[in-house]
Write the structure tokens for this entry.
Amino acid sequence: MRIKDLLDPRSIKLNGAAKSKDDAITQIVDLMAASGKIDDKKAYEQGVYAREKETTTAVGDGVAIPHCRSTSVKAPGLAAMTLPDGVDYDAPDGEKVKLLFLIAAPNTKDNIHVDVLSKLSTLLLDENFTKNLLAAKSVEEFIAVVDKAETEKDAAEKLNTTVANAKAKLLAVTACPTGIAHTYMAAETLEKTAVKMGCSIKVETRGASGAKNMLTEREIAEADCIIIAADTKVPLGRFDGKKVIQCKVADGINKADKLIQEAMSGDVAVYHAESSAETEKGTYGKESAAHIIYKHLMNGVSYMLPFVVGGGILIAIAFLIDGLSIDLNSLPFDQRSSFGSITPVARIFKTIGGGAFSFMLPILAGFIAMSIADRPGLAVGFVGGFIAAQGKSGFIGAMIAGFAAGYLVLLLKKLFSKMPKTLDGIKPILIFPLIGIFVIGLFMTFIVEPPIGALNTLLNNALAHMSGTGGIILGVILGGMMSVDMGGPVNKAAYVFGTASIAAGNYNIMAAVMVGGMVPPIAIAISTLMFKNKYTAEERKAGPANFVMGFSFITEGAIPFAASDPLHVLPCCIIGSALAGGISMAANCTLMAPHGGIFVFPVVGHPLMYIIALLAGSFAGAVLLGITKKRVVE
């Protein structure tokens, strides 16, 4: 496959004009759509903007290469547009962009097109090539210029990056999230700059088609310095003890000379794989503490998600079976708390689903700890998460346990680093787990659990005091509390108060509690469908499962979303739940069952208003999420 095979004449526009960057993107997306290679133009355009928001795709010298890899692309393609008057495009050199190439890449395992697109990216670094494209008088001439340049590049001898009497032996790794353009442009620029400055260099590219030109152990051992120009995760453990510079992939294109000069100077910090600041050794693009914490947290959330989804849906099936099999009104009050496990078949589903759910918080804590301290942190994190699950601290306690366990193990690694090398084998299987589990157990039992328990008691007492003072206000407070920590102590305080109110004959309180707890998963599920650009691909796939859990009154289904973005998700869900609880109480809706979601709606008093309360709270939360959450760049 050649570059011209991806260029459709219908997708090329010469001597165009654009008022702004957004206008230019809109026009070139229209050109791409004209070739028939896109299924969903809107989704593709959102992907282009998401990539642009991460960092400008202008590469300098009047060239920009916007691109998107998406399931909305049927076949790989290119669109091109020349703008003689240029357009402001946030270019790193401040120049107006006069030449745009838009890349459409399908999100498939077949990445044959990636090599072709990477070749185009490197051709665009040639000033003569871009001048010839801008001077083309017709679409045919434009395609001919591309074809000629590609032919010459294929025929040219490969750049010899081995320099006699090299001033320095350098290695580099380049990677960008999409893995199509910037990865290869950075590699090409670093290679040319290094040779020009008298250094030998080898560059490993980690693009959409996988890692290529892999660095060997011997090359790493002999290297004077290693440059990591990447906007995505790169395996770094192999560079332990070497001088490493870390930077953004754009710096590999625009600041190659500075990077090579710094690498040659030798004034570069040594990277240590077991350091708690594992990736922050370079001069450029230092990773913020907040981003490091976020990455560790998301590692735990990603492993926790299957347990939440699988276990939650099985529990929902158990409620459905009991709901279809039993008349809840005919059951004595003391048996209603067993709803979902009354019939034998329902009990099987509830037991299996509940078992999966019981792993949720240990998994969260364990894999947060593992992200921080590697495998030795896993067992310590698991135990901390288990204590949080068995106690009163809930998922907030599990997150605390995960981070505490991870950094505890890092501390242990440092403290025992002076032990004889012959004892290295017993550290991860004896010393770290033995001391780590004991310490995290003490920490969770005596430091984390007591204040959370005190908070729980305080909330229960406050609710009991308010029970006779104001229906709507109480409904708003109880509904909102169900979203504060989604299964944690605040949630449980409201729930226990609701179930206790049933025994006292106050059925409207339980109704407000349950509708408030149903809102968060449903609001998130609606939001993932309405505002797709605010969620990652993994979150969009998991979103619809939250309908099942929300309708089943399993608030915990929203935990992975709340954990990944608590500052936006929690306030929106709290407002939605508070609204639902207030409407329920204002309409005097009642509920005599302590659980069950929609499967116990037949026994709800004023069921129509109860449904209105649920929908109002869920849509309010979903819209607020769409407004407040930031666009996701993948």
Residues 427-466 form the longest helix (40 residues). Confidence is low (pLDDT under 50) at residues 275-286. The two ends are 27 Å apart (CA to CA). The chain is about 60% helix and 10% strand.
